[in-house]
Amino acid sequence: MGRTWNNKAWFMVLPVLLLVAFSAIIPLMTVVNYSVQDTFGNNVFFWAGAEWFEEILHSDRFWEAMGRNLVFSAIILVIEIPLGIFIALNMPKKGWGVPVCLVLMALPLLIPWNVVGTIWQVFGRVDIGLLGYTLRALGFDYNYVNDPFDAWITVIVMDVWHWTSLVVLLCYAGLVSIPDAYYQAAKIDGASRWAIFRYIQLPKMNRVLLIAVLLRFMDSFMIYTEPFVVTGGGPGNTTTFLSIDLVKLAIGEFNLGEAAAMSIIYFLIVMLLSWVFYTVMTAYDAER
Amino acid sequence: MARLDETTANERTLMRQTPATAEAQTANAALARKMRRRGEESRFWWLVPTIYIIFLMLPIYWLVNMSFKTNQEILGAFSLWPRNPTLANYAVIFNDPSWYRGYINSIIYVVMNTVISVAVALPAAYAFSRYRFLGDKHLFFWLLTNRMAPPAVFALPFFQLYSAFGLIDTHIAVALAHCLFNVPLAVWILEGFMSGVPKEIDETAYIDGYSFPRFFLRIFMPLIASGVGVACFFCFMFSWVELLIARTLTTTAAKPIAAIMTRTVSASGLDWGVLAAAGVLTILPGALVIWFVRNYIAKGFALGRV
């Protein structure tokens, strides 16, 4: 792209810079501040160096939440990505079915996150929920309030319900960009259904899929509201993911130093992933 | 002027394509017909989307179903549809200020946030799509990290920051806080749309003697109108669905509907019908406007990059 060098463009970016600096840099500096200081109350702080970081990196609680979150994200990706591709491949390509499918599938994406939680909280209840009631009627001993396994299943199914459509929509956008000529050529060569998928559709969906994987990973890595509403992090701590743990630490226990140190570690991981995302995107833009 | 040039160019390319012989075209059509027959050889291709959509709609249906039942019916008899449909639950919400204020509060800060985000993002997105400048790539990347930042990290610092400014429990506090992820989102989406507009249009307009503001409003804005609409929609949506920050920054006067809902669940745990009705009402705004952006949903969620 022939973009001209012009440093005056800075003036156009300035409002964004000021606004985002106000809502990102100042809070972030507060966090950095807390992460290296300790207090005995009364707003008297003293230097604590890397103590909080050492504490958090040595705390089982942090690593357990991290482990749970990584397992959760991995399960989410393993289910949602193939499922999303499969559904996108079976979407109608033209006709009245297209807008109907798009609108209905996108609906869960636009529901407030705590309402998503509420929906599943109600849906899974064994006394008044369709899912819980049906499972009980079929003889399963399902109870997401007391059973950690059932709680996990519920949270995972909820996330699949909530976000698979994102993968579907992205893949579908990639699929419709494939010119008909490709398929015709494949037919002439007598390519099988699998070959068409492997050598035409998958390569064309490559970048879209990468975006989908990254977005799904990041969002599931910082999931808070939905599992919080459904399980509250329980039973016990079994569905306490990183964000839930962090909010507990910061607002529930008011353990500012540790929470701040944890925030910074959390944020660095997210930065790293954003960088991967950015590299992918710019490589794509350069090709465009 | 510029648009005229574009159409003539399109016509020229069209003319270049027409010499394809009629024979080749009929052959193509026959092949396409055959392909469709074979490609969808399983006559049950519609089964997958249908099952998936049923899976998506069931929990939503259950919520709608509950919202038309009385509490006695919900807790008493298990039924797939309301036996005695009632609007009482909705009446409770529309008659109780502590309920419907929640919706008004949410809408106020969401609209404020959308206006602020898109207004500041427009010039910035233009700068990113048209110019190179010192630190542009770093800046663009930094914006992205804010879109990806976990709200949980920012909840407490936001509370302290807005306390210091005396802005706690105001709509503007939530609107500004949501700018953290919505401004980057709007910049990325708009940049994606603007990069699709050829640069020659800008240059032609300058040669024709347009000043920058006039060019931007009269020529450029109509060209990216759909992009602006999509950016607005996504700012609206992401501000509407967010709860953690909105809840942290408000106590009573600006409390969003989402937070009022959670309070009801934990406090009484009994008013299922009203809870369901409130939930249904929060789904409506998205459901109403989704039709208009259906072709851009993927692009919006992928930050303008599909």
Automatic annotation (TrEMBL), chain A:
Record keyword Methyltransferase present: no
Mode of membrane association: Multi-pass membrane protein
Transmembrane segments: 12-36, 70-89, 101-123, 160-183, 208-225, 264-284
Predominant location category: membrane
Highest taxon listed in the record's lineage: Bacteria
Biological-process GO terms, alphabetical: transmembrane transport
GO-annotated cellular components: plasma membrane
Domain ABC transmembrane type-1, residue spans: 66-277
Subcellular location: Cell membrane
Coiled-coil intervals: none
Family listed: Belongs to the binding-protein-dependent transport system permease family.
Name this polypeptide is given: Glycerol transport system permease protein
Automatic annotation (TrEMBL), chain B:
Any one annotated GO CC term: plasma membrane
Top-level taxon of origin: Bacteria
Domain ABC transmembrane type-1: 103-293
Cited InterPro entries: BP-dep_ABC_trans_perm, MetI-like, MetI-like_sf
Record CDD domains: TM_PBP2
Keywords: Cell membrane, Membrane, Transmembrane, Transmembrane helix, Transport
Topology in the lipid bilayer: Multi-pass membrane protein
Transmembrane regions: 44-64, 107-128, 140-159, 171-194, 215-241, 272-293
Pfam families found in the cross-reference section: BPD_transp_1
Localization (cell): Cell membrane
A biological process term (GO) from this entry: transmembrane transport
Similarity field: Belongs to the binding-protein-dependent transport system permease family.
Protein name (record): Carbohydrate ABC transporter membrane protein 2, CUT1 family
